[in-house]
Every structure is written in structure tokens, then in C-alpha cells.
Design goal:
This protein has no helices and eight strands. By secondary structure, it is an all-beta fold. It has an eight-stranded antiparallel sheet, with no helix packed on it.
Length: 114
């Protein structure tokens, strides 16, 4: 896949998604590299590996990590968990990174399949 980036960073973001599913367990990886077209120091790589279990079709729970590497910096890794539900065409997922720490973060994701 490929996307455009607009805002403080302007650029092109090629990415890749890969998944492997066995019964109710899924291993999924999405990643992208952002090429900042205005300054090289704005380039960065981001990956979001997930391992989930779906006891029923509409619910999933699992472990997630976020790996980020900005241009000429070390890799930042955040670990956590996710909860996801789906209803008809809609999907809702909540990611909690660094739970129990003072610098935790929560990401809410909404998707629609068409």
C-alpha cells in the first residue's frame, strides 16, 4: 500500500500488511516508512505487530507492540494489549501501550469494510 502524509510532515508513506491465521489465533504486522519530502530528518519507520485470539467472530484480544525509528535515532518500542470488537461493517479497536507506567498511551481505531 502507499499513502500521502500532510501536516507538519509532508511526504510519501509506502507500507505493507501481512497476516497469518490459524483457527482463532492471528499474527498480524503492519509497517510503513515515511519519506518526508521537505526534510530528511522527518523520515521514520513504524511497525505494529499484533498477536490476537478471537474466542468469537466479533471479539478479539491480544498483545501488541509499536516499534518506531526516526531518522538517525534509536528504536523506540512500546508494548501493550488490544481489545477489538466488530459489528456488521464496522471495527473498533483500543490499543493500550505501556500499561501501568506513567507514560502510557491509548489509541482508539475505527474502521469500516466496504
Amino acid at each position: 500500500m502507499i499513502g500521502g502524509v500532510f501536516g507538519r510532515t509532508t511526504g510519501i508513506a509506502p507500507g505493507l500488511e501481512v497476516s497469518l491465521t490459524y483457527k482463532k489465533i492471528e499474527l498480524y504486522l503492519s509497517n510503513e516508512y515515511v519519506f518526508d519530502t521537505t526534510r530528511k530528518s522527518g523520515n521514520f519507520y513504524d511497525a505494529l505487530p499484533q498477536l490476537t485470539y478471537s474466542p468469537v467472530n466479533w471479539f478479539r484480544v491480544g498483545a501488541v507492540a509499536q516499534h518506531t525509528a526516526a531518522f538517525q535515532t534509536g528504536i523506540s518500542v512500546q508494548r501493550g494489549f488490544l481489545l477489538g470488537v466488530s459489528h456488521k461493517k464496522w471495527e473498533y479497536t483500543t490499543y493500550v501501550f505501556n500499561p501501568g507506567l506513567t507514560n502510557y498511551s491509548v489509541v482508539l481505531e475505527v474502521g469500516v469494510n466496504f
